[in-house]
C-alpha cells in the first residue's frame, strides 16, 4: 500500500528551483545532497497526495498499486466526481436531474 502521509516542508521551492537543485546535485556536499533528495521525496509525496485528493482514479491507484484503469473506469469516476461536486443529472444524462447514478456490473 502506498504511504500518503505528507511531511510538511518548512521552505517552499518552486518546480524550477527543485530542477535547478537536481541539475547541480554533484556540486553539493553529501549531506546537502541527502537533504535535497529528502526534499524532493517529500514534494513528490505531497503531489501524490494532492492528486489522490482531487481525482478518484488517482485515489484508486494510490490505494492499489497495480490498479488497471479502463476507459469505463474514467467515465464512471468523472461522473461520480461531478456528482460529489454538486452537479445534477436527469435520466438522459442531461444536467439538472437527481444527484445520484446507478451502475450495474456482472460479477467476476
Outline the structure in words.
This protein has 108 residues and is mainly α. It folds into 2 domains: 1-67, no CATH class; 70-108, no CATH class. The chain has 4 helices and no strands. The protein has helices at 15-23, 30-54, 56-63, 71-84. α2 (30-54) packs across α3 (56-63). The longest helix has 25 residues, at 30-54. The chain is elongated.
- Would you tell me the overall average pLDDT? 82
Global Rg: 20 Å
Q: Which structural category fits the helices and strands? A: mainly alpha
Helix content: 40-55%
| Distance N to C terminus | 23 Å
| Count, helices | 4
Quantity of strands, as a count: 0
Low-confidence stretches: none
Q: Could you say how many structural domains there are in total? A: 2
Major β-sheet profile: none
Task: Give the CA-based shape.
Answer: elongated
Order of helices and strands: HHHH
Question: What portion of the residues fall into strands of 2 or more residues?
Answer: under 5%
List keywords for this structure.
mainly alpha; single chain; 4 helices; 52% helix; 108 residues
Amino acid at each position: 500500500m502506498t504511504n500518503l502521509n505528507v511531511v510538511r516542508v518548512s521552505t517552499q521551492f518552486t518546480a524550477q528551483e527543485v530542477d535547478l537543485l537536481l541539475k547541480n546535485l554533484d556540486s553539493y556536499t553529501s549531506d546537502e545532497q541527502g537533504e535535497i533528495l529528502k526534499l524532493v521525496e517529500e514534494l513528490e509525496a505531497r503531489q501524490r497526495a494532492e492528486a489522490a485528493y482531487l481525482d478518484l482514479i488517482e485515489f484508486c491507484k494510490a490505494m492499489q498499486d497495480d490498479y488497471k484503469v479502463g476507459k469505463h473506469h474514467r467515465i464512471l469516476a468523472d461522473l461520480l466526481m461531478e456528482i460529489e461536486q454538486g452537479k445534477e443529472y436527469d435520466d438522459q444524462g442531461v444536467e439538472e436531474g437527481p444527484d445520484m447514478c446507478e451502475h450495474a456490473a456482472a460479477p467476476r
